Amino acid sequence: xxxxxxxxxxxxxxxxxxxxxxxxxxxxxxxxxxxxxxxxxxxxxxxxxxxxxxxxxxxxxxxxxxxxxxxxxxxxxxxxxxxxxxxxxxxxxxxxxxxxxxxxxxxxxxxxxxxxxxxxxxxxxxxxxxxxxxxxxxxxxx
Length: 142
Fold this sequence. Notes:
The protein is mainly beta. The chain is about 0% helix and about 60% strand.
């Protein structure tokens, strides 16, 4: 995230996710006192349709290797439709996860995204569930 954005490819069972992260804040604006908007988007590819059941972002503030936040900051985006949001091309997911102010002595954020996916199980028509996580470390400007 040092350049302001990051792209990764993740796997969850038989599903491949092309994930992008970015912020509307410049890297030098990532200070402990600010609200820090972090966008996550992805598109899934597999042999059958894929749906996003939920995306959860958990962030913990650190000073060096010492945790300085009392508890993790957790933001969860759960689908409000069944079986979830369609995320196979041409569809995709985009979500905004805002990290609030953290202790002033924090020097980094350890962020983890958890993606819970449902894939249509051919030929039964049921669903297969798979989960993957993606850890990020984001530097904060003192």
